[in-house]
């Protein structure tokens, strides 16, 4: 990894983490601010017991580290304990991914565990 980094002319220690999306706890104030600032946003409604969510986690983690998603703000919402947010988002189930660009919802999916279709969904947040 260090050889590839140096070959790009970047300082040693400058790895992919510099490109990582920002994962933050969901608060209405933070979400509203991100929308107002026109940021690309992912809201992941998840549950620790959900098998689809478990399959989504490594896919999302990998995608969030891609340079294309470096500006993405990721909010994880617990399906069981944050019911008010789940309802406000209009989600019916855990494993729901909702993408926004600013205040505009750009797409959503539920139960999707295909890396390519999840990437396509996340790309809509950048539009």
Explain this structure.
With 127 residues, the chain is of the alpha/beta class. It contains 5 helices and 5 strands, in the order H-E-H-E-H-E-H-E-E-H. It has a 5-stranded mixed β-sheet, sandwiched between helices. Helix 3 links the parallel strand 2 and strand 3. The longest helix has 14 residues. It starts with a helix and ends with a helix. The N terminus is likely disordered.
Using brief descriptors, characterize the structure shown.
127 residues, alpha/beta, 5-stranded mixed sheet, globular
Overall number of strands:
5
Looking at the structure, what is the overall shape?
A: globular
Instruction: Give the strand order, joined by hyphens, for the main sheet.
Output: 1-3-2-4-5
Q: Show unreliable segments.
A: 1-16
SSE order: HEHEHEHEEH
Strand content: 15-25%
Helix content: 25-40%
Mean pLDDT, all residues: 86
> Which class do the helix and strand fractions yield?
alpha/beta
Compute the gyration radius: what is it? Answer: 15 Å
**Termini distance?**
31 Å
Q: How many alpha or pi helices? A: 5
Can you summarize the main beta sheet? 5 strands, mixed
Write the layout of secondary structure elements.
Layout: H1 2-7, E1 22-25, H2 28-36, E2 40-46, H3 51-64, E3 73-78, H4 83-88, E4 96-101, E5 104-110, H5 115-124
Parallel strand pairs: 1-3, 2-3
Antiparallel strand pairs: 2-4, 4-5
